[in-house]
Amino acid sequence: MKMKYRIEYEKSCVKYLKKLDKNTQIRIINAINQLPFGDIKRLQGSTEDYRLRVGQYRVIFSRYEEELLVKIIQISPRGQIYK
């Protein structure tokens, strides 16, 4: 059974998404809507933070199982996200 997570975005993520071209926006939003499935890994040294890979972009998010909530923290190109 597929559980539906509620998705919340940080303001900075929404702002960054609006700067991207339409195709990239659609790819990233579709990948986020598929959570908790996709190319996901837990970040090292972190208890709740994960990364989702969407082409050259990375989406950092926290997952709260008890609330069925996914909070999108950061969206950036691969080379910049881990700095």
Question: Could you explain the architecture of this structure?
Answer:
With 83 residues, the protein is an alpha+beta fold. It has a single domain (6-78), classed as YaeB-like fold. Helices cover 30% and strands 36% of the residues. The chain has helices spanning 11-19, 22-33, 78-81; strands at residues 6-9, 40-42, 49-54, 57-64, 69-77. Strands 1-5-4-3-2 form a five-stranded mixed beta sheet. Strand 2 (40-42) and strand 3 form a beta hairpin. The N and C termini lie far apart (37 Å). The mean pLDDT is 87. This is Addiction module antitoxin. InterPro entries: RelE/ParE_toxin_dom_sf, TA_system_RelE_toxin. It comes from Syntrophobotulus glycolicus (strain DSM 8271 / FlGlyR).
User: Quick one: overall form?
Assistant: globular
What is the H/E order?
A: EHHEEEEH
Count helical runs: 3
Q: CATH topology, anyone?
A: YaeB-like fold
By CATH's scheme, which homologous superfamily applies?
A: RelE-like
Radius of gyration: 12 Å
- Computed structural class: alpha+beta
Query: Sheet bearing the most strands, described?
Result: 5 strands, mixed
- Just name the CATH architecture: 2-Layer Sandwich
Strand content: 35-45%
Overall mean pLDDT score? 87
Unreliable stretches = none
Biggest sheet, strands in spatial order? 1-5-4-3-2
Number of domains: 1
- The residue fraction in helices comes out at 25-40%
The N- and C-terminal alpha carbons lie at a distance of: 37 Å
Provide the CATH top-level class: Alpha Beta
Number of strands: 5
